[in-house]
Structure formats: C-alpha cells, structure tokens
Amino acid sequence: MKYIFILTLLLTSITFAEDFGETIRLAKEGQADAQRRLGLMYRDGQGVLQSDQSALSWLIKAAEQNHVEAMNNLGHMYEFGNGVPKSYEEAFKWFLKAAENGHINAQWVVAGRYARGKGVPENDKEAVKWFMRGAKNGDPQSQYDLGLMYVNGEGTKTDYQEAIKWFLKAAEQNFLMAQLDLARMYANGEGIPKNQQVAFKWYLKAALKGHAGSQYLVGFMYGKGIGIAKDENEALKWYLKAGLKEHAEAQYSLGTLFYLGTSVSKDYSLAVMWFISAARQNNVDAQFALGIMYFLGKGVPEDYVTSYLWFSLAKRYDHEEATKFLEHVKKMMTKQQIAEGQARATRCFESNYKYCD
After folding, report:
1. CATH classification for the domain delimited by 102-166, as one of 1.25.40.10, 1.20.1250.20, 3.30.1070.10, 1.20.1260.10
2. According to CATH, where is 1.25.40.10 located in the chain?
3. Please, which of 84, 227, 275, 348 could form a disulfide with 200 given CB 3.0 to 4.6 Å?
4. Residue closest to 275 by CA, chosen among 264, 262, 290
5. Which helix (H) or strand (E) is 301 found in, with range?
C-alpha cells in the first residue's frame, strides 16, 4: 500500500510538471487562457512553488488581453489582499472591467459595491443599473437584489409589480431568499393582493429544500387549512422536520399536538420534551406551558418550584397568563420554595437557559 501511494504521488508530480511546462510555453506565446491558468497555478501553488507576485503578473497579462475571468480574479486578489495590498478601490476597478466585458458575477459584485459604497461612492442608481444587467443575463442573485431595490425604492421608484417579476425569475431558479420573500408578500398582501394558495406554493418549495422556517409555516398552514386543505397528519410531518432542526415555534407546536392529542396519541411526556426544547430557545408560550405542566403534574411530577421558574421566565416577557399563574402558585409555596424558584429562574435566564434544572 505504501509503494502504491508513493507511485501515485510520483505520477501526479510528473503530470503537474508536464502540465506546468505546456502552460508556461503557451503563456509566453501570449495565449490569454494559458496566462490566466498560469497565474492561478502560481496563486495556488499547483505544480509550482506558490508565488503571489508571479500570479499577479500573469493574471494582469491575461486581463490586458480582455480575459474577463482574469479580471475577476484580480478583483478578488485586491478585495482580500492576497499577495497585494488590500484595496477596495483597486478591486472595484477590476470587477468593473470584468462586468463591462460581460462577466455576470462581476456585474452583481459591481452593483453591490455601488449599493454599499465599497471602493466607490455610494450610488443606488448605478446599483440598479448593474443589478439589471446581471438580472437580464439570468443571474438569480442579481434578480433577487433588483427586486429588493424595487421594494425599498432605492435607486428607483417603489414598484411592487417589478419586484414580484424579478423575485419570480429568481425563485424559479430555486433561489431561496426570493422564494421566501414571494411567499411572505403573498401571505401578507405586501404590495399585492393576498393569495394564500400562492404563498403556500412558495413556502413548500423552500421547505422541500430544507429551510426550517418554511417547514414550520407549511405545517402551520396544513394545520389551519390556510392556502391548502387542512391535513393534521401533514402538519405533524412538517412540524417534526422543523422541530428536529431546532425551530422553536415548531417545537412548541409539537408540544401542543402531543398535549391535546391532535393527530397523535396524547402523550404528556413528549409534550413536555418539546416544550422544554422550545422554552430553552426563549419561546415564551412554551415557558408558560411548562409552568402549567409542572403545576398540574402532567408528564412530570408535580413541582411548584419548577412551575414557578417557568412562569417567572415567561413573565419577564409580559406574558399575561404567566403573570396570573405565578401569583396563584406563589400562594401555594413556602417562602423557602419561592426563594429557590427565584434563584433557579435567575440562574436559568443568566445562563441563556443552559442551567434550568
């Protein structure tokens, strides 16, 4: 096995050496592709001793022959200070050259630099212009960002129809943020008439890609019959997907399903488990629910001190019912128990819910 490894390493070295020799020959003959490739080989130390200076020299030679990828590579070198002094201004210069020569990603970068004033004075109109170029060239990130400019009225007048148009183009290319914004706008009627069916469609697409927030919302919409026929089994399925990704609201919803026995067998122990997961993420409703569970002894032994702890934590966020129940449980506790509950609540809160037991 040792000899096979050595032989493989030797053959690889020979291949790299031959590749480097051919590349440098073509680069010296003035072929732009070879010059860029040689620059990247020096930059990465691939088949040759790493040299930022040589990388810069060969990339500039390629860029001077209008090689757009080399221009873009130079922009990144100056952006991050790789082998050259970091300079946002110099980076912008090369990104702009690449963008003007049709490099789609560079068009998005240039737009972003204009929007943020990074390496160039802030100019929202120029940002819109370059986002538009990238968007028309089919870049989903540019399409999405252009939509945002129309929503926010930056560099152009507010125009929700244009925003929807560009969000839709990006969303159809599976660009997650566009799918989420489309879903939210249709769900809430932001600049367009409400359409829960369309909102559900886009939340579902995002959920199928594993987005926990969308998985929760798909579960919620199934559970309430919003935009889709009510289906409690589907609601449970999507809550579980989101809950296992530590989505607090989904975990609280799961706790509620197991508490009520909705689409599952009633199970107070599992309800407590999910409420605890959500409560430790500062879900106030779950904190209140835990207070109730410990107060009544459902799924856990009856424990007024722990009940006090969770009611107290929910009260911090002005949960009205928790405030009422806290006063009620205090009447059933000794001064020593109240002091213990207060101390545990403080420790739990100050440890960011790490030490609540």
Report:
1. 1.25.40.10
2. 1-101, 102-166
3. 227
4. 290
5. none
Largest separation between any pair of C-alpha atoms in the chain: 91
Contact of 182 with 173, CB cutoff 8 Å: no
Nearest to 108 by CA among 125, 95, 121, 119: 95
> Confidence band (pLDDT; 50, 70, 90) for 18?
low
Q: Given the structure tokens 């050496």, which residue do they identify?
A: 17
Burial code (b: 16+ CB inside 10 Å, e: under 16) for 112-130 equals: bbbbeeebbeeebebbbbb
> Distance between CA atoms of 307 and 328, rounded to whole angstroms?
11
We find that the CATH architecture of domain 1-101 is: Alpha Horseshoe (1.25)
d(CA 21, CA 155): 50
pLDDT digits (tens, 9 = 90+) for 85-99: 999 999 999 999 999
CA 32 – CA 65 distance, rounded (Å): 6
Beta-carbon count within 10 A of 318 CB: 9
Give the alpha-carbon dihedral of 8, 9, 14, 16, to 10 degrees: 110
